[in-house]
Amino acid sequence: MKIIRAMRLTVLGVAASVLASLSCGKDGGPTGPSGPVTATVSLATPRTDDGALLLELTGRGLTAAGVRAARDDYFVQARPAVSGGGVTVLVVGDLVSGPLLRVDAPDAQAADGYAVAVKEAASRTNALVSASGRSFTIER
Question: What is the pTM of this model?
Fold first, then answer.
């Protein structure tokens, strides 16, 4: 009985060592990302006359102060979302496919969990248009 118990403890010890080594980098530190990162939200749109988008950004650690335009010719205004957390963002300009926003994230894992949804859209002539048909990618 003592031999079986000793073998179990040895197996558990080896398993714990393997798990610990998998969770550490070469220098012994954690392998996960650390520190703040900046994510780029890019727009893909089939429209040639997008002039304004009202967006909802969701994810851990988002702040209105951490959202800004990816291009100098875009105007961006951000505020905390009314419900459900996240940030409501208004982007105005001659919007085209490509980088739209830069978003500060507390770490890379938080940025990986960000999502974007279009609440409203307008053309460059200030006419409301369908909010569908656009997609977004978020890269860090």
Answer: 0.75
Adjacent-strand bridge partners of 24: 30
Cα 138 to Cα 14: distance, rounded to the nearest angstrom: 40
Please give the C-alpha separations between residue 98 and each of 49, 67, 137, 140, in angstroms, as whole numbers.
14, 16, 9, 14
Residue with structure tokens 């859209």? 121
Q: Which long-range contacts (CB under 8 A, 24 or more apart) does 78-81 make?
A: 81/56
Domain locations in the chain as residue ranges = 1-31, 37-139
Task: Determine the Cα–Cα distance for residues 101 and 71; give it in Å rounded to an integer.
Answer: 8
Q: What is the 3-state secondary structure (H, E, C) of 17-56?
A: HHHHHHCECCCCCECCCCCCEEEEEEEECCCCCEEEEEEE
Write the pLDDT tens digit of every residue in 5-52.
Answer: 444 444 334 433 433 443 344 444 444 557 999 999 999 999 999 999
